[in-house]
Task: inverse folding
């Protein structure tokens, strides 16, 4: 391997492709003896829109706690997939995934981002925007997209 990937970021959203990204990052970490950081970004605006569509405009106080608990479960499950010798930090942030991930790859010295592709397709990806595509275009380090 011509490049040493010592610090690898894997954004986790709970999808199958994000767990495949962990598997690929682990293979790379084994070769380079690197560490894998996991990041889950809770997009509250997306959750609120879905909730409001099915339940009306009123949002119960406990709903934010439920979303946070879901994020905790996603991170805990993801941590089990990373062998202990390659575990770095794991964090949960709240906000727009594109902005948060851009901030992480700009301010932290990551050597590589390994991200799952949710497979939105061309038309939904065009309107909704693909986080993986955004990172490919804007990250300051290499980005590997895993299907």
Result:
């Amino acid at each position: 391997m011509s490049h040493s990937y010592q610090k690898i970021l894997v954004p986790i959203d709970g999808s199958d492709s994000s767990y495949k990204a962990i598997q690929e990052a682990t293979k790379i970490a084994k070769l380079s003896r690197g560490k894998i950081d996991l990041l889950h970004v809770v997009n509250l605006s997306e959750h609120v829109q879905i909730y409001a569509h099915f339940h009306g405009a009123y949002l119960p106080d406990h709903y934010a706690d439920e979303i946070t608990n879901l994020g905790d479960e996603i991170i805990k499950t993801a941590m089990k997939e990373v062998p202990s010798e390659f575990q770095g930090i794991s964090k949960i942030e709240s906000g727009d995934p594109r902005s948060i991930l851009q901030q992480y790859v700009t301010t932290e010295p990551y050597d590589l981002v390994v991200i799952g592709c949710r497979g939105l397709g061309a038309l939904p990806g065009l309107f909704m925007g693909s986080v993986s595509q955004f990172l490919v275009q804007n990250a300051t380090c290499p980005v590997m997209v895993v299907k």
